[in-house]
Amino acid sequence: MSLTFDDGTFIRAEMETPLPPPVRNIGVIGWMRENLFSSVLNTILTIVGVGLFLLIVPPLLRFMVIDAVWTGDSREACLGPDVGACWPFIGAKFGQLIYGFYPIEERWRPNVVFALGALLLVPLLVPSWPMKRLNALLFFVAFPIVAFVLLTGGNIDASAFLFERFGLIHLIVGDVTIAGINIAFWVDYILTAIVVALLVGAVIGVIGGSAPSAARNTLMVFAAFGVLVLIWDIDFGLPYVETRQWGGLLVTLVIAVTGIVASLPLGIALALGRRSTMPIVRLLSIVFIEFWRGVPLITVLFFATYMLPLFLPAGANPDGLLRALVGVALFSAAYMAEVVRGGLQAIPKGQYEGAMAMGLTWSQMMRLIILPQALTLVIPGIVNSFISLFKDTTLVLIVSIFDFLGQLRASFTDPNWASPVTLYTGFAFAGLIYFFFCFGMSRYSLFVERRLNTSHRH
Amino acid sequence: MSESHSIVPDAQLHAVHTAPGHEVAVELVGVHKWYGEFHVLKDINLKVKRGERIVICGPSGSGKSTMIRCINRLEEHQQGTIVVDGIELTDDLKRIDEIRREVGMCFQHFNLFPHLTILENCTLAPIWVRKMPKKDAEELAMHFLTKVKIPEQANKYPGQLSGGQQQRVAIARALCMKPKIMLFDEPTSALDPEMVKEVLETMVSLAEEGMTMLCVTHEMGFARQVANRVIFMDAGQIIEMNEPEAFFSNPQHERTKLFLSQILH
After folding, report:
1. Which is nearest to B55 in space by CA: B257, B264, B240, B265?
2. For residue A93, which of A406, A374, A388 has the smallest C-alpha distance?
3. Cα-atom radius of gyration of chain A, to the nearest Å?
4. Does the interface predicted TM-score (ipTM) exceed 0.85?
5. Is B129's CB within 8 Å of A354's CB?
6. pLDDT per residue over B110-144, tens digit each?
7. Where exactly are the structural domains of chain A?
8. Closest residue of A to B100, CA-based?
9. A376 in reach of chain B (CB within 8 A)
10. Domain A85-452's class?
């Protein structure tokens, strides 16, 4: 009880105790009233929504499940009135949809790549599993090399190629091969590495950075590339499968994964470049980003495939898929850069000042303070880019690379399976596959977002 | 301008620190700074001895924050020299990093890193800048968190703490680098009145340990209690500089008198 006086003064005698909230909104009926029928407009919207659901879902289910044909070995099974999806068609074309024209006896190789990828990716995505560092190293460094060797067959004689083109002492001594290793090339390579490292060290030292660490990093890049060349040179006895024969989901995943893995670091670098205080770096980043954002992906692919060879010296004809990969990666990097820049702009100046005042270097500040926060903020945008990249891979069809959708369309032409429902079945299947990947990415991003949302935790 | 300088005779300045072995911690000589056309700092001359505690006050926009932010190069001065801990501030990145390692700073809005726990906020710089092993850094961080009386919050995130607690974490975070000089840029201005006291107490205990401190603040009680000298700035220049007793009881310059009459009711 409190004391209230006529003159408006008030003195509280006891503090109020907290009470439970009113129970009106609890239970199914309460929830429905609150969420579905809270006003006339909401009631109408609810009814329209239910109507749309009834209009779309039952026929879809009927086509894909109830009326669908599940067995058969030719178009005969799928003829007739009121026939739903012709699943035997998908079954018959399944190998083609997954591997394209990859030789049947070599299909174990993509299978191993798929399995390895999944085995490495799943533990990487589950936050509570240990050894993230090793896992990431395996997935981002070892896996691409293994996948490359497995899928192409390796043994591409990279050292011979490089030596012939860039080797300065090639002119003097020619190839000196001992035990299958081109000694002259490696002498040349090591000399080049040392010279470049010294040059980089000198330049960095002059502009005020740490010369030894710059030289060391350069040497490490050379060493890594050297290991790569060495691995590419080894003959594992795998028959060579040229990328022209690749197709189907294999190509879709190769392009999408390469694009995704390459575009994020490239995009971050470009975004940082665009916000740099160094005018040349900033200008180059802006020019790069605006150029790639200003042209459609189809143009990029077309240019890379049909026009680039005209500008390159005769004989230099990089692989078609490789050219498409580079085009897709650079294209999506430009978009990624703008997404990341949005995140960088959202970080208050105080975070930079706090980090700088503690003596962190620029790269430590970016790596430990700014980027973790900026990237967390723009996860929706990043995943948006990933998803649109995944779906844009279908555009490689116009440069005669048969990805999943391309392979599907090719299989429509098979007269063995020509039926009124073949087309619908094929696209329904394609829809399911693309939805599986895109929805998966979307859900996972929501999970990550919730997990990383520490700043607003109260 | 020259008149207001002479208000504090040199003899008196030296009298404050008679103990031998005192060297200069921070020295600003003829420092000027412009923001575009705007002249924010005009001929700043200041010598801070080791262990000395300076409080800087003045109206907003008078350049007091800019001045102390020049000391660790969050702002660049365009004329004059700044020597911190015997190192002259130039464009040389190595020198700037060296100075920032020795100079701790606390901000008005704390600037804690929201994606890291309190403990991680405190261990970050010792681990990455001082190259301290993680375990030692955590021990050190817990030591300073205990000192600012919030060891139990170590595993929470900054967003879960009150403003006063956040500012004390910010002080602990700066102390983890074992700085020789501490800069405070209005550390209590963004706090609820109830929380000002806990932050000031932390700062007082820091002062009692002999830390060299430069504080931009309007907490005149704090100035009276711990400052060796109080500086009043207006329009980008130092108007008056004196011991707190003399500064508050007998301000010399008209502008100082006006300012003090506004804030001391």
Report:
1. B240
2. A406
3. 30
4. yes
5. no
6. 999 999 999 999 999 999 999 999 999 999 999 99
7. 2-66, 85-452
8. A359
9. yes
10. mainly alpha
